[in-house]
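Run log, item B.
One chain of 214 residues. Sequence copied directly from the ordering sheet:
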Amino acid sequence: MTSIGILGAGRVGTNLADKLAAAGHHVVLGRRSPTDDTAAAPGATPRITFADQRTTARTTDIVINATPGDSSLDRLAGLRTELAGKVLVDVSNATRDADDGLPGDLCYPGSSLAEKLQAALPDTQVVKTLNTMLFTVMTAPGTLAVPPTVYLSGDDEHAKTTVTGLLTDLGWQPGWIEDLGGVTTARATEAMILVAPHLLRRHGFRPFAVSLAR
């Protein structure tokens, strides 16, 4: 199975790590300052180990960006050498918080985090996905009452095929996966996240996805 590095050990990163490890992948969860860069934490899945983010990017086959979107660009631009030749799966949204801490505005209006990352990492294949839903839906899409949609944006077709395989491991059925085209299409899906705070304020943290109905 593939070795997958996840940059960011918050709710999104750990949720993805658990599901991908359960699917048989070896997962390295990249922390800023891990207390142990080789051993799994007590109670963790045996297929999950921990490292600093630079080591995580260097030693794994596919890397997932689950760092806070407003700081992802600066953080990952410093890993250009480690990420060269790899697929980078960007699941983050670059937003500025409103007064209540929920997303209030985009950091890159007229562009997107994925586009900025691709420009900063020209030797890396950036694929945007999984950024239009509550984080719990990323790994349990079948729990929603209506089949959800997950979108793909990226310039490299082989990279998108690779990411489609990971989405399948996360429980996404082929008919739920919508390839929008090149990385510039990520500006559309990143803007979709601005509907999320309104939903969360009205309904609380109930699972949802911004989906396509046909």
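Observations after the first pass:
- Confidence is low (pLDDT under 50) at residues 36-43.
- The first strand starts at residue 3 and ends at 7.
Flagged for discussion on Thursday.
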